[in-house]
Amino acid sequence: QALLCGVIVMRPEDPLIFLEEKIKEIMEKGLDAGLWYMCIDPSLRTNLKRIAETYLTALFGLEDEQLITTELCTKAFDFYSRNLKKFYFRGWIKYHLQRKNNRKQTEQKMALAAVHYKFQKIRVIIEKWNSWAQIHKGKNILAARRLQQIFNKITLNAVLKAWHAEACSSLKTKAYFESLIKKDQEGGFVSNENLSYRSVKCKASHVPEEALLQIFRYVNLVDLARCAQVSQTWMLLTQNSSIWSDINFSSIKHKVQDKIVVNILRRWRPYVLRLNLRGCRSLHWPSFKSISECKNLQDLNLSECQGLNDDSMRLISEGCPSLLYLNLSYTGITNGTLRLLSRSFPNLQYLSLAHCRKFTDKGLQYLGSGRGCHKLIYLDLSGCTQVSVDGFRNIANGCSRIQNLLINDMPTLTDRCIQALAEKCEQIMSVVFLDSPHLSDTTFRALAECKLVKVSIEGNNRITDLSFKLMSKCCPYIRHIHVADCQKITDAGLKMIAPLKYILILNLADCLRIGDGGIKPFVEGSSGATLRELNLNNCVRVTDASVIEIAQRCHNLTYLNLRYCENVTDTGIEALGNMSSLISIDISGTSISDMGLGALGCSGKIKELSISECQNISDTGIQKFCQDTKHLEYCHVSYCPQLTDETVKALAFHCHRLTSVSIAGCPKMTDLCMGYLAAACRYLHFLDVSGCIRLTDKALKYLWKGCKQLHVLKMLYCRNITKQAVLKYTAKLEKGEHNDGDPPPWLGYDRNGNTLPLPKQES
After folding, report:
1. pLDDT tens digit string along 31-62?
2. Predicted pLDDT at 49
3. What is d(CA 453, CA 481) in angstroms, rounded to the nearest whole number?
4. Do 11 and 79 fall within a single domain?
5. Helices 70-185/2-10 angle, 10° precision
6. Is the domain of 22 the same as that of 134?
7. Are residue 225 and residue 81 in the same domain, yes or no?
8. Torsion, Cα of 539, 541, 543, 546 (10° steps)
9. Residue 653 located in a structural domain
């Protein structure tokens, strides 16, 4: 205790030496004379006052014999010793913590000082380097200017010399031909040179100007600018005002900037009647200002123009009062724009607000208020899920002359919406409700008073045969019926519409309950002979019997889709070979073989053919088909792994008009087939070679040399085509897709072209 109290109170600089000295003193004096404060300097000892017995008696009320006992003294001494130890120990701990904190703060300050010194050093170095770089930069700029001046002088001298030589040559040529003409007028002979001079003309000059103007109307703006550089005659024709009455910027939407639009519209604004800016996302205020200066504009397409807002539309509305057609789909317009439409475009007939999500039912009320858009006959509200029953009621109140209604991608559309619209819009002739699953037969009951000509509905499980019954009774002049993926439509419904006389297009894709029992009565009905398009995609109950009936009855059929009709075989396809009207056919996923395909080509008039996923087709079948079909333009033979280069060779050799070819998923194709295409198919626009694992960079080189009009090229899962070749040979394509990954398992073969085993079906 004495040693510990001494260390705590004295706080020696070297505690070990202090303890050694005090231990020696204790050994000299003996342990009996040891007191707890014997190691503390007398000046630092605490002065303790003795407590008299009278105080203790007064405090504790003890008697004389109880006042001081050995136990009480011992306890008091222990209590006091403990408190004293605690007091000095805490002081000692505080002292050492303070010293530790001081050392830590010193270390932090030194670290900061080192960082500051480092940054200051770097700053000085950078400043010196910057000044050096500025000096050398100035010297380089001065040297470049001097070199440019020398180059300009040399170029100018060369140009002047060339111009002088050309001028002298022109003078001599002019004088020579003038002398020949003079001799001819005087009755002299006409030399071969003179005859050649008179007969040599541009080949294009033999084409009438009216025909050239018609051709130039189908040319995009970039190609039109190139045509203007061909000759002076063509330049004058490209400046004809009739060409600039219809301007289409959407074909070059990725290149269009405000400057281009402003320059063109500023020059041709009096003649512009139709203007298409679809997808031009980089246009801003200057372009819309130029549009407002086209006073005679009648047709304006601003779809997908991200820069369009209510202020831009206000500017356009002030300058284009004659507007009849307006497309604002996929823009950010609000109720303010709809109010402008009703005020500024009283003659508006066609309006598209597809996928515009910022206007409300109140905005639709503006369409019919005031002068209003009362002449509106076409309205597209596809994707406008914010429109409620009140919105459709507002449309009906203000735009009762609507004839064409387009409402796709709207899962919130219900029967009540159509009922509210049909109450006053009795002139509706065409309705399109794709991806509207909540509509039912009630919708067609509400439209019963309208003389419908076109009905399109898709992805609906509530439409039943009752709707077909209503069409047969209330829509005698209907021409277009599209009821794809409506699972409750059966053969009975087809029998109900069989008496209709004017049906030209019938689409029953993915209606799984349709079979021979409905197709045969319909084809035998009044519209069988006039039907032009028939889509039976994935109607698995259709068999050869229906196909044979179609071939015998539908003499005007131009398009037929039998995709994934598994029960259709060569027997039915051979019957289609006798149809002279058939132009486009899709028999992908059927059981057709080479014999049926060869018979299909007998008509020789098919332009579009799709036979993807036909496992029984080989090169021989394609060769037989191509021998009789010279007008083929579209051919997709995807996912037929048994086909080889011979297929493409037959297509290229016989069908020179091909514009779209797909051989995706054909692992046996090599670079040789691309050589065939490049050599013969000059008009090819679309090509899909995804999954052709044997193609290499050489294939791209062939296409780059031969297929100058190729716009879209897909090369997924082509591991032997390098990215460097893709960048080199596909830079000018509108769209190119490529990856060098392994083919996915669903293609049915591995990276080496080996067939994968079919997955085992769980029992």
Report:
1. 666 677 777 777 777 665 555 555 555 555 55
2. 54
3. 9
4. no
5. 50
6. no
7. no
8. -70
9. yes
Look at residue 507 and tell me if it is in a domain.
Answer: no
> What is the predicted pLDDT for the residue at 48?
58
726 and 593, same structural domain? yes
Pairwise CA distance, residues 423 & 357, whole Å = 25
**Residue closest to 496 by CA, chosen among 465, 474, 519:** 465
**Structural domain tally of the chain?**
4
Q: Is residue 642 domain-resident?
A: yes
Q: What is the pLDDT of residues 167-180, one digit of tens each?
A: 887 677 566 545 64
Q: How far is CA 35 from the centre of its chain?
A: 94
Instruction: Give residues with Cβ within 8 angstroms of 763, minimum separation 6.
Output: none
Query: How far apart are the two ends of the chain, measured CA to CA in Å?
Result: 88
Rounded Cα–Cα distance for residues 188 and 180 (Å): 9
The rounded distance, in Å, linking the Cα atoms of 643 and 622 is: 9
Same domain, 3 and 91: no
Separation between Cα atoms, residue 217 and residue 221, nearest integer Å: 10
d(CA 443, CA 744): 44
Query: In the numeric block, which tokens belong to residue 229?
Result: 């550089």
Residues 621 and 710 in one domain: yes
- Per-residue pLDDT tens over the stretch 302-352: 999 999 999 999 999 998 988 999 999 999 999 999 998 888 888 899 999
Does the structure show a pLDDT above 80 at 559?
Answer: yes
Q: Do 691 and 664 form a contact (C-beta atoms < 8 A)?
A: yes
Beta-carbon count within 10 A of 535 CB: 21
- Closest of 202, 206, 196 to residue 231, by C-alpha: 202
Residue 129, in any domain of the structure: yes
Place of tokens 């280069």: 645
pTM for the full predicted model: 0.70
What does the pLDDT read at residue 50? 55
Domain identity same for 603 and 643: yes
Q: What is the CA radius of gyration of the chain?
A: 47
Name the amino acid, one letter, at 557.
L
Integer CA distances (angstroms), 747 to 479, 564, 590, 717, in order = 40, 17, 18, 10
Q: Which two tokens stand for residue 382?
A: 């596809």
Residues 621 and 739 in one domain: yes
**What is the domain extent for residue 35?**
1-43
Does the pLDDT value for residue 272 go beyond 90?
A: yes
